[in-house]
């Protein structure tokens, strides 16, 4: 039986006034959502979508629990993001100043046998195996499109004036392209990182790999956040580190409470997530 053993940390950074990132860590899920939008709407977008995905995935955590959402991990992720999209739409209808708000979403789900990535936007998921760091997600950004089409060299990305333009997100539009759903090559002993661009815009992959390979998940998340802050902390930064472990822990049907991060820690940020199964554990916010 495979599960995650992980930790997360979120920090507002040195520039932003409030934290628009949301995160969640539990034995079956690790996710980061990075919200954007005016009228204090970024945190509402990220928390609403994160809550919907966590809620949809909660049945995975409780053996024998009646599942409101049945099906594969891909189907669970599709249902969760659809709920989150509806929540964003309702939030905009309640306050038109929120028009344009959206969020990235990067989430890893494990059902005991498989790991699946759900991703949209420019937050990222990585796997560290035998010292080799591999990016699992594809950036949905304008500069990533330019690189993929051969119009821009990778060494010019950091200097491009449109490097932060995101082409895809969860924004409340029922006709959007949805999230990428990707089965992950996962083995016990792998370590995964899910993070917002507040880390990757400031800390290179070589340094991320070095930090990711040293210490417990809790120590590593703290070190990664500290590295982003030391590099300027221009944005909110959220990191979730997950070790994939194999064990035979008995379950009693109760869901893993998990750990909430950033904007998700404030229930006021969550708009109409549906009947909630989130059992709130300790928050880890800054």
Automatic annotation (TrEMBL):
<dbReference type="InterPro" id="IPR036457">
    <property type="entry name" value="PPM-type-like_dom_sf"/>
</dbReference>
<feature type="domain" description="PPM-type phosphatase">
    <location>
        <begin position="3"/>
        <end position="244"/>
    </location>
</feature>
<dbReference type="InterPro" id="IPR015655">
    <property type="entry name" value="PP2C"/>
</dbReference>
<protein>
    <submittedName>
        <fullName>Serine/threonine-protein phosphatase</fullName>
    </submittedName>
</protein>
<dbReference type="Pfam" id="PF13672">
    <property type="entry name" value="PP2C_2"/>
</dbReference>
<dbReference type="InterPro" id="IPR001932">
    <property type="entry name" value="PPM-type_phosphatase-like_dom"/>
</dbReference>
